[in-house]
Amino acid sequence: MEKFSYNKTDRRKVTTLRLQEMKTNKEKIAALTAYDAVIAKIFDEAGIDLILVGDSLGNVVQGLDTTIPVTLDQVIYHTKAVMNGVKRAMVVADMPFMTYQISSEDAFFNAGRLMKEAGAAAVKLEGGEIIAEKVRVMTESGIPVMGHLGLTPQSIHRFGSYRTRGTNKEEADKIKKDAKVLEEAGAFAIVLEKIPYQLAQEITDSLYIPTIGIGAGPYCDGQILVYTDMLGLTTEFTPRFVRHYARLREIISDGVSHYLEDVKDNEFPNLDESY
Prior knowledge:
With 275 residues, the chain is an alpha/beta fold. The chain has 11 helices and 8 strands. It has helices at 16-24, 37-46, 57-60, 72-83, 104-116, 132-140, 156-159, 169-185, 197-206, 227-230, 248-264, and strands at 29-33, 50-53, 90-94, 122-124, 145-150, 189-193, 211-214, 222-225. Helix 2 (37-46) crosses helix 4, helix 5 packs across helix 6 (132-140) and helix 8 (169-185) packs parallel to helix 9 (197-206). The chain is globular, with a radius of gyration of 20 Å. The N and C termini lie far apart (57 Å).
């Protein structure tokens, strides 16, 4: 596969139009989650194109088993923090469970809060045809929407497991149909999570808008990972689609142990580190 020559001096603000240009030009979209200003600033300066303030904060920040308890106010809080660290990347905020399922009016109002109060450039919703009308209402009113198909964590109790989705024809056909419906409703991009790479490639080739994969193979228009997985901070369980680009858990643990030892031995602080 031909390597793309990435230009780190390109500091153009990433927008929905820029993402579309990237798909057209076959430039892969690099995305990560973030939940605070310090991490977001590092990612932004490194050149990450899109930062998702995911409801995965329930797992990563709060230590919950699922994303379902996460509230809109919590996502607003973390999105505001992320926005303080970002200049170039596009920031997308997740809409938590029960903030868009009830009605189009509720969905529009809650999405508006994420943009107006938190400063997000777009919102992300899970689901296909069932949320299409809500996507249409939001996009027609100026709120960019990213879709999310395949394994949708807010529906984990309905699925009953985190198994790969779209492995049978009926489910694969439904995901393909939902992708087209979301595109027609105005979504600017779609996250494809934990589906067979062949299905993801077929969907990607059939859409005008970009796809961003997580556990969906190399043929999506971009990729996203939860940053604590990618940097090796969470190691209790590692899905096959996660690649560790660093081992920060070990580095942090070693640093804390060294600090602890120095404090206990009265070697920190020394006089040069004192006023």
